[in-house]
Design goal:
Layout (H helix, E strand, L loop, with lengths): L1 H5 L6 E2 L4 H10 L8 E3 L6 H10 L2 E3 L3 H13 L5 E4 L5 H6 L2 E5 L4 H6 L2 E3 L7 H36 L10 H21 L10 H30 L3 H23 L5 H19 L12 H49 L1
Helix pairs in contact: 3-4, 7-8, 7-9, 7-10, 8-10, 8-11, 9-10, 9-12, 10-11, 10-12
């Protein structure tokens, strides 16, 4: 219970027994605000439930239908609810909770309705369950962000080339090298490391938010690069090499972004991938068909690499500004809707 309190969770005790008795037991178990209890028999209207779920910690004399009502009320208020139970009277609430947790020693109905079953009947295992869930979700978000950068870039570039007569600036061999060193191996390592950070936001929204700056930056820089190549009449082989350099550079920037906060392991990963990419462009250039760049194309590439950082930071700032505007509009709309409900 101390662990969940430290993590920002709130423990509610819902029981069919006498609320005074339940309150005493909850206090001995170390649950915060255990002395704040209510008899569920006094709850009748939706307004009663709305006030009670925020005010009280212990609920006594609760019927199975009322347990479901309490769970739904908490969810309506924006809470993510995990419900633990072991009896038939908990089945309705277990099914409606975001995460239903049953004891193996409980009824078969409760075990079938729950998503998790504690085989050792020990609530002490829950912190480990939460830690594993956080590791999976947070690490998959990072790995998915890396993969989605390439997908966003490929989709946008293909869409643009449908209307603009420009050559496709990539060859499969280069793309394989970039994908392996900026996506494949880093995502494998990031997906396996421990991660106890609290899960925040929506999964797809977080993934798109992390991947979009890299994808848009890739598109802008590659289109600028193609414009330079068309103006200065560089050979196509140099276009392919310069594009590979730009995409590798953006890939490392995205890897650094999704690896925050950087510790020595993630720093080592980013450094190793950077060294590996440089090794491929220098020592293994013949293997990957990279061609030497002229002085003019090298200067253009240097300018574009500096511009890459500026574009990526700009996209991030625009993204943050849009998030702030959307959040402001949502707050305004919620206040307006609540005021309209109050008038009704």
């Amino acid at each position: 219970f101390r662990y969940f309190a430290a993590q920002g969770g709130t423990v509610k005790v819902i029981s069919g027994d006498n609320p005074r008795t339940v309150s005493e037991v909850a206090g001995q178990a170390g649950i915060e605000r255990a002395a704040s209890w209510i008899d569920a028999g006094t709850l009748s209207t939706n307004e009663d439930y709305d006030k009670a779920v925020e005010k009280y910690t212990v609920f006594g004399r609760v019927t199975p239908e009322q347990k479901r009502k309490l769970i739904r009320t908490l969810q309506k208020k924006g809470h993510t609810v995990a419900m633990t139970g072991d009896g038939v009277n908990d089945v309705l609430a277990l099914k409606d909770a975001d995460c239903g947790i049953a004891m193996a020693s409980g009824s078969d109905a409760a075990c079938q309705a729950a998503q998790l079953v504690l085989l050792e009947n020990n609530f002490r295992t829950m912190p480990a369950v939460v830690a594993e869930g956080r590791r999976v979700i947070n690490n998959i978000e990072r790995a998915a962000s890396l993969f989605l950068v390439k997908n966003i870039f490929s989709f946008l570039l293909t869409f643009v080339l449908l209307f603009v007569n420009l050559p496709y600036p990539l060859v499969p061999l280069h793309l394989s090298m970039i994908s392996a060193l900026t996506i494949g191996f880093p995502s494998f390592v990031l997906a396996l490391e421990p991660n106890k950070n609290r899960v925040r936001g929506k999964f797809m929204r977080n993934v798109l938010r992390a991947a979009l700056p890299g994808g848009v930056t890739n598109l802008c820089i590659v289109l600028l690069l193609q414009a330079f190549v068309a103006v200065f009449d560089f050979p196509m082989e140099q276009l392919y090499t310069m594009t590979a350099v730009v995409l590798s550079f953006v890939g490392i920037l995205v890897l650094i972004q999704v690896s925050h906060p950087i510790d020595w392991k993630r720093g080592l990963l980013c450094g190793a991938m950077t060294v590996a990419i440089v090794f491929c462009f220098t020592v293994l250039h013949t293997v990957f068909d990279f061609v030497p760049l002229s002085t003019q194309s090298g200067l253009v590439l240097a300018v574009l690499l500096l511009l890459t950082i500026f574009i990526m930071l700009s996209v991030l700032r625009i993204q943050q500004s849009l998030r702030h505007v959307i959040r402001t509009i949502r707050v305004w709309w919620k206040k307006k809707r609540d005021s309209m409900d109050a008038i009704d």
